[in-house]
Design goal:
The chain is of the alpha/beta class. It has 10 helices and 12 strands. The protein folds into 2 domains: 125 residues, Rossmann fold (3-Layer(aba) Sandwich), CATH 3.40.50.20; 135 residues, LpxI C-terminal catalytic domain (Cytidine Deaminase, domain 2, 3-Layer(aba) Sandwich).
Length: 281
Amino acid sequence: MPTTAIIAGQGELPGLCAEGARAAGHRVLGLGMRGFYDSDFPAICDEFRKVSFLRPGGWIRAAKRAGCEDAVLIGRVGKDVMHRRGFKLEMLREVPDLYSFDLWYRKLRFDRRSSNLLRTLADDLAERGLMLVDSTTYLPEHIASEGVLTKRSPSSTESGDVEFGWSLLRQVSGLNIGQSMAVRQRDVICVEAVEGTDRMISRAGELCPRGGWTLLKTTAPDHDMRTDVPTIGIRTIENAAAAGCTCIAVGSGRVILANRPEVITAADKAGIAIIGVPASE
């Protein structure tokens, strides 16, 4: 039986990925990043170990001992972590391994963009024998499809906001600035950066207290699907509804709906329309 390593950050995606891998006939080695993974994740795995997010050499050794054929890096780790006050001290407290120091000083210290960090990490892990695969490999039933996904279709105004904002979002995501944008009546309310989608949603609600705005979310055209695949979850729906969002447009095949049936049910209950936009648009 093939074995897959799942390197887990926050949220329910690592658990859903583990379930998908087991359904595909794989044994699952869970590598939970200390301080990030959810408490119910270990029980879903056939074998589980805690690892440090700054000691990827340990990921490699654990995966090799378990005979893993592939690995998935999935779950939230805040993009703002490198910009926090005292980040270097936090790094030392985590006791980075020589692998981290080597990778940082050879390839990352002059370009700390999360997209570059994750792509470089994935490439380097592959060179050392730990092959990361597309994060959606074991989540096919949770990927956003094309067209209207909810009971309610977008209104003409919301459709106009999607059409207006989509090309702008593709440019913004292509520049590795962010993966989300809020638009109302063809006016950009705010754009996601390192704060993440949830905090951007909160900011959109503050800037547009009238509500009726549309959330757009997708990846860059050349996004490396091995890492940081954008996700919409139940919490996203709840936060969006509270902030006055009435429509969500996501890139079909490019965005994960974390527990898709429940996400769509939550959106229907909140009166939020969700539409999958083709990658070609």
